[in-house]
Amino acid sequence: MLLGQLAWTFFVIGAFTFGGGYAMLSLIQNQVVVEHAWLSESTFTDIVAISQMTPGPIGINSATFVGYDVLYTASGSHLLGLCGSAVATLSVVLPSFLIMLLIVRFYLRFKDSRLYAGTMDYLRPCVVGLIGAAALILIVKTTWNGYTPSFRLVAENFPDYKSWILLAFAASYWRKTSPILLILSGAALGLILY
Known about the structure:
mainly alpha, 2 domains, 75% helix, 6% strand
């Protein structure tokens, strides 16, 4: 039952996500934290952080880690956790694979179409909005009281002031520091500080 729900959830996420893995994060968070309550917000944030550090697309990595965590938590079995990883990963990439097969077949016929160009023009701002929503979801908890939303910072996503001292963004943006060096430095600082 849970494996089927996991497969369907990630199949739908894969089918309705445009813009890559970061755009996918808001949909994943909504389904696994809000709708199904399979994970807590802090666990989801940890999964996103791990997904960013591991090789591969963040959306697929997140699906892999979520699938493992959901099945392992429900059963206590590492084998079922691995099955959850495989099912979530395959389910999230299957729609894209099928869509790409169709696009390859029909792209040359429709690439100069005004309908195709218009569709792409409307999808670009949606992608930007989904990526922005993913960033806000990781920072802010929104609760709805009737029709009025109330916002608060998610405290467990920001453990303490030491987390803010890690200047990875500044180092990578202005000093053009290697991402590998930043990851290794962050790991060393994390071991020292925590």
